[in-house]
């Protein structure tokens, strides 16, 4: 017996199961004889899906005996050639089949195999559909986590009971400092004061229960070193799965006192800014005046004005406020 799958014309180990076939025979098939098999060329592409058939429906025994596949693979390895099989799934990318092979052409036994395959096929097909659905969901979850990891801001995904499901690298670094937030031993997000803890728990559980969205400036978590972390806590109605755990609440933390990062690299590439122009633009976007930016860069104010005119000409931003709006229209990604 063999359950085997082919993706883009090649065998895939993820969809292969066999009994009474030697591992070496399966490897030989995958490495070479799949290209000579009339069952792949004709059966996987032409037989109807979900209806069991004898191997003679694909190729007659006389024609099979003249093929390389029979003489160098089936006969040379002492394999059975009297088979019954069924196509379980077929699409543009993948084909999956289940087959039973015997050494003898026992009519009663082979008819019994056809009945068995017809009985099993709906259940196996349903299992494959569920497998495909779960696989797509896992892939979407992995893609979402990759995007999550590129954020520059600290972000955490929490379960409905407030425990950590996953967090990005920026959040790991922030939690490790234990300055404003930390993670308890049971994986809960904790603030540095009891008052902030109570507000944080209330916001998280309200979101998990489908409560109102908590605004970014509605929850400020005090830092031991002074200042605050601004917290935006948002519900995820559909949830997001990670390693089997379901995240229901997204927490984004912004350190208001940290150096602000802007997507100046994107602006530089998009508008062709020179390195000196990009450095000036980055300071202006962060809120520095032209005089402050000139002092920080160690250049004359007149030189800064000349560079600013070049930036304005390239970007079409004729005021510093326009340049700031351009930067804010771009997402800030982690370096």
From TrEMBL:
Residues 270-327 form the HTH luxR-type domain. SMART domains: HTH_LUXR. Transmembrane segments: none annotated. One of its GO terms (biological process) is regulation of DNA-templated transcription. InterPro entries: Sig_transdc_resp-reg_C-effctor, Tscrpt_reg_LuxR_C, WH-like_DNA-bd_sf. One of its GO terms (molecular function) is DNA binding. This is HTH luxR-type domain-containing protein.
